[in-house]
């Protein structure tokens, strides 16, 4: 595998042409945040890297709220995933500093914390239980009375009866993060092929690159499939290696806070209203993001009147003053969901093919650690220890015994059982992000 120093100009990498010899070291399919961070880190480590996407820099991050919510997103049975989420959250400050330096762009990282509030006795009981669970895991969260919550956030409804303050759950602006990653990739010498990957190329039992929709063939030592919710649809990938990801639609509403109302909220506020989660994420630039629905409707990204109505209705219960704010945008995106809500990272059973997908509701949070572990896997062929529970092989059938993903403990569920909290596909398991 040939290497070159970051930024070293020994080939037409930024023009989209193949490197001398015609073969990339690493080829990434998909230019959402996960593909971009993988390509950036690979190029930084000296790999001749290409990225294929008709529209890099779009994807789910264009819609995402950008909560870095390792603690408030904790679900029962997802303790292993929590470990990865916390590890990525710890890397965020350094990651942001390095990316801002590399791109010359501000990514809107805000160390503002999160407040999860309760309205009635049931909510309070639920949050109290969550608090105990969090404390049992050594996580930092602090119980607050309704009055203390309103002292922190005066715009909260008088109906708030208590809440959990999580000082370490921050936020970043995913649109800015994506734009910065694009620039950092370009500066690190990643070759962009603005086209769709049509088919994985195989030579015997080895992945050797991709064919683009225009017919061009790109050869690569290692190919990373990072196509988000479409990762399970690429032609040419053997059936037993195809990642089991599915699209989970989320609708979001964006309001803006005029100067005269600032600061409207000082931190992310989240709540469960009528059994459904809602969050309000205030950005430094005056934007207020309200999300999100969670819908299993295939690849549909229609913004519906019902979705927007529910979001505004529930957010209004939490912060009645939102009705005064200008509505600037509605949008919908697709989370790449996996059977255990955890990502699939690293080598597959097909030599030459790696996965970086299935990040579901935590893709923004998991961006720093994904870049690091994927670069390591591309170079050494091995996943670092912190990522080993997330190997795609956990879903692969052992030879001749048929599919048996439920037989092995999975990172999303310490003790998986059908219908247990934390199992995917359960309509009762509403997701927050
Ligand atoms: C409403 C909503 C709110 C969210 N909020 C949060 C949050 O607060 N915090 C958080 O951490 N996460 C959040 N997420 C999740 C996060 O946005 C995703 O996990 C993450 O963006 C997934 O990134 P990705 O790069 O894997 O996939 P995508 O963003 O889906 O990117 C995949 C890319 O692959 C490309 N592609 C697909 N097929 C091909 C092909 N054949 N050839 C070439 N390219 C292809 C697409 O064009 C696309 O650019 C949210 C998501 C949604 C929808």
From TrEMBL:
Residues 25-376 form the FAD dependent oxidoreductase domain. It comes from the Bacteria. SUPFAM superfamilies: FAD-linked reductases, C-terminal domain (SSF54373), FAD/NAD(P)-binding domain (SSF51905). Residues 1-12 have a biased composition (Basic and acidic residues). It catalyses: glycine + O2 + H2O = glyoxylate + H2O2 + NH4(+). Residues 409-433 have a biased composition (Low complexity). Keywords: Oxidoreductase, Thiamine biosynthesis. One of its GO terms (cellular component) is cytoplasm. Pathway: Cofactor biosynthesis; thiamine diphosphate biosynthesis. Pfam families: DAO. Coiled coil: none annotated. InterPro entries: FAD-dep_OxRdtase, FAD/NAD-bd_sf, Gly_oxidase_ThiO. GO terms for molecular function: flavin adenine dinucleotide binding; glycine oxidase activity. One of its GO terms (biological process) is thiamine diphosphate biosynthetic process. Residues 1-22, 384-433 are annotated as: Disordered. Its EC number is 1.4.3.19. PANTHER family: GLYCINE OXIDASE, SARCOSINE DEHYDROGENASE-RELATED. This is glycine oxidase. The lineage of its organism: Bacteria, Bacillati, Actinomycetota, Actinomycetes, Kitasatosporales.
């Amino acid at each position: 595998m040939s290497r070159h120093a970051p930024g070293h100009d020994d080939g037409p990498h930024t023009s989209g042409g193949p490197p001398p010899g015609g073969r990339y070291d690493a080829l990434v399919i998909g230019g959402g945040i996960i593909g971009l961070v993988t390509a950036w880190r690979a190029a930084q480590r000296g790999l001749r890297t290409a990225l294929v996407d008709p529209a890099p820099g779009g994807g789910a991050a264009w819609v995402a709220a950008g909560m870095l919510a390792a603690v408030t997103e904790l679900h029962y049975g997802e303790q292993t995933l929590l470990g990865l989420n916390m590890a990525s959250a710890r890397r965020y400050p350094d990651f942001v500093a390095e990316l801002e330096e590399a791109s010359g762009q501000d990514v809107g990282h805000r160390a503002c914390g999160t407040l999860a509030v309760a309205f009635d006795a049931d909510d309070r009981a639920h949050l109290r239980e969550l608090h105990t669970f969090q404390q049992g895991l050594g996580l930092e969260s602090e119980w607050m009375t309704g009055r203390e919550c309103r002292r922190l956030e005066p715009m909260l409804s008088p109906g708030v009866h208590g809440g959990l303050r999580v000082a370490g759950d921050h936020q970043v602006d995913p649109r800015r993060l994506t734009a910065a990653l694009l620039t950092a990739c370009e500066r690190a010498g990643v070759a962009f092929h603005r086209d769709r990957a049509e088919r994985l190329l195989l030579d015997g039992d080895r992945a050797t690159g991709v064919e683009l929709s225009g017919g061009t063939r790109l050869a690569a030592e290692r190919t990373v499939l990072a196509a988000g919710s479409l990762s399970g649809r690429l032609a040419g990938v053997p059936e037993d290696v195809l990642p089991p990801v599915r699209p989970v639609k989320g609708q979001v509403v964006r309001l803006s806070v005029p100067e005269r109302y600032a600061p409207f909220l000082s931190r992310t506020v989240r709540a469960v209203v009528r059994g459904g989660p809602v969050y309000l994420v205030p950005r430094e630039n005056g934007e207020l993001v309200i999300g999100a629905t969670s819908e299993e409707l295939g690849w549909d990204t229609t913004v519906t009147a019902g979705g927007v109505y529910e979001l505004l209705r529930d957010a209004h219960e939490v912060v009645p003053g939102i009705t005064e704010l200008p509505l600037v945008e509605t949008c919908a995106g697709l989370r790449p969901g996996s059977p255990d809500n955890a990502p699939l990272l690293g080598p597959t059973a097909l030599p030459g093919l790696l996965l970086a997908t299935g990040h579901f509701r935590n893709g923004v949070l998991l961006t720093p650690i994904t870049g690091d572990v994927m670069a390591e896997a591309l170079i050494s062929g091995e996943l670092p220890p912190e990522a080993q529970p997330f190997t795609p092989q956990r879903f692969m059938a052992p030879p001749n015994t048929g599919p048996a993903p439920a037989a092995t403990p999975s990172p999303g569920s310490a003790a998986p059982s059908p219908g247990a909290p934390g199992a995917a596909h359960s309509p009762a398991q509403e997701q927050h992000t």
